Amino acid sequence: TVESVLMKYEHGYSLCISTQVGCRMGCSFCATGLGGLVRDLTASEMLAQITTAQRDENIRVSNVVMMGMGEPLDNIDNLLATLDILTSEWGMAWSPTRITVSTAGVAKSLPRLLDEQKVHIAVSLHNPFPEERKEIMPIENAYSIRQVCDILRRYDFTHQRRVSFEYIVLEGMNC
Question: Are 63 and 99 within 8 A, CB to CB?
Fold first, then answer.
């Protein structure tokens, strides 16, 4: 099963799509990781989520967020192939400003994404204190949020591209 979520806003429809079936990140607050990683989705499976959402002639997806099931940067090759098709003139010719990639912080893949694409980046922070973040997000053990921020600082986010930090307040965990 692959999860996609279509949300209607005044500006149009935003679609959250999955990049994997399951997830291996093990964040304590996320149900997706309970079963572990089953497999990576292919580029065609990611794109199919968009075309399926637009089957209704009244629905045109205006924005895509890679933040359904899975960690997008843990499936970097298929993610980049999908983004190439979405943003290339020979593909769907979308502006990269219509796309956001959300990540828990897979630092080894982040520079490649930032070098090859101009999409928006959303970092799942959920706790700014490394020792506390480790308790809810095991990725902190492999790639610290400081390491992720050091990588982000090397890139320009002033022209049409932005970075944001996601923070869910979880009683008893990070507030």
Answer: yes
